[in-house]
Write a structure and sequence with these properties.
The complex is a heterodimer of chains A (about 190) and B (about 190).
Chain A (H helix, E strand, L loop, with lengths): L1 H36 L14 H7 L7 H19 L8 H15 L11 H15 L4 H22 L13 H17 L1
Helix pairs in contact in A: 3-4, 4-5, 5-6, 6-7
Chain B lengths: L1 H23 L2 H4 L4 H12 L9 H12 L11 H7 L7 H23 L4 H5 L11 H9 L3 H16 L3 H9 L5 H7 L3
Chain lengths: ~190, ~190
């Protein structure tokens, strides 16, 4: 898979070079860097991000230091590695891929609300695992609850005029959701 | 039969959205959509200015000519995506936005065709693959003209190929997700 990805990436890089030239491609990375350090010339607001970077801003950690984000990314990456070590005895490969997608979204340095569309695949993989497991257990209920909340909670926020979760104490529910998810995952790993 | 129902459903959704969107779309409504930056990037490439794609002055000029006002909605995606979207700039921005939305609706509508081959739950109940139409991030992506639905389709396709043990093809398809490479930085190593 890595070979296929490398081949595809090389092909797209060459295609990009045909569009901009090598210098233009280097300008792309400089442009991104400038955009990032200037807070997007007015268009980028990290407080609106739905990743760990946005979480830190929303919680009032206004520092633009990338250290926190890098540390958070490293921790989440380690969580992903730990998940990959879980033996595939209970047909959990789909569930593990679902976790990988969630980690990639949360740890990414740039993620806005529409990007959470990717979680749809995670939700369907998790629900498939719940359906395949068959038995009515606490972990099934918790994972199902998390999946349902992904659909319901943004609508609740909109109805309550919060729009962004830190606008009200409604954010207190998020640690609960994360705990449910972790407990469900931890229980399923045993 | 299930495949036919999914395709028929997707066609119905595309027609329904087209009938709703075409009379309602005007430049005023699109002004704040993220699609503007895709259109600006694609216009620059279409006009043969790819080498200057990532210069602020080039993008400022393109945005001003599209919107008739200044904007900071800069194109930040890789050059190959701008090149792929360039043919769309033969249409005016309103028509191009409608076309792009219909492409996204079609991709979301056809998603069950991909997921049926790798998620048993969706194979049994293909309509579950359409829950994206009830998922707020996906609806936001549609409204803004974002490319998150395309990303979801690409990653789902890659997962399906991986599930079928076609790892090389899966990697090549995953490379297309470089349109938002910040997620692959985490996802690929995992």
């Amino acid at each position: 898979m890595v070979a296929g990805f490398a081949l595809g990436a090389i092909g797209l890089t060459l295609a990009s070079c045909m569009v901009t030239g090598w210098r233009g491609l280097l300008e792309y990375f400089r442009f991104l860097h400038d955009f990032n350090i200037h807070s997007g010339y007015g268009a980028l607001n990290t407080a609106l991000m739905v990743n760990f970077r946005g979480f830190l801003r929303g919680m009032g950690w206004a520092s633009e230091s990338p250290v926190y984000t890098l540390v958070a990314g490293a921790i989440l990456f380690c969580v992903g590695i730990a998940c990959s070590r879980v033996p595939d005895q209970a047909n959990k490969s789909g569930l593990i891929f679902a976790v990988y997608i969630a980690i990639a979204l949360v740890a990414a340095p740039y993620a806005h609300f529409p990007d959470m569309t990717l979680l749809l695949l995670s939700v369907l993989l998790a629900l498939d695992w719940v359906a395949e497991t068959g038995r009515e257990t606490i972990r099934r209920i918790l994972i199902s609850l998390c999946c349902t909340l992904l659909f319901v909670w943004p609508v609740v926020l909109l109805i309550l005029h919060g729009h962004y979760w830190w606008n009200s104490r409604i954010y207190l529910v998020f640690p609960l959701i994360v705990s449910c998810g972790n407990f469900g995952w931890g229980a399923s790993a045993v | 039969m299930k495949n036919f129902i999914v395709v028929a459903g997707a066609v119905v959704m595309v027609i329904a959205v087209a009938a709703t969107l075409i009379p309602l779309t005007d430049k005023g409504r699109i002004r704040n959509a993220d699609f503007v930056n895709f259109y600006a990037g694609a216009s620059i490439v279409h006009d043969g200015n790819g080498a200057r794609l990532y210069r602020r002055e080039t993008q400022d000029q393109a945005l001003e000519s599209i919107l008739s006002e200044k904007s900071t909605r800069y194109y930040l995606h890789p050059p190959f995506e701008a090149a792929a979207l360039a043919p769309m700039t033969r249409l005016g921005i309103e028509r191009a936005f409608v076309l792009w939305t219909l492409v996204n609706v079609a991709l979301l509508g056809l998603l069950p065709l991909v997921l049926m081959q790798c998620i048993p739950l969706v194979k049994r109940r293909p309509y579950l693959g359409w829950v994206g139409f009830c998922f707020l991030p996906a609806l936001t992506a549609l409204t803004l003209g974002q490319d998150s639905i395309l990303l979801l389709f690409v990653i789902s396709l890659s997962y399906m190929l991986m599930h079928k043990k076609r790892d090389g093809a899966s990697g090549v398809v995953l490379a297309l997700a470089l349109i938002k490479f910040q997620y692959l930085v985490i996802l690929v190593p995992l």
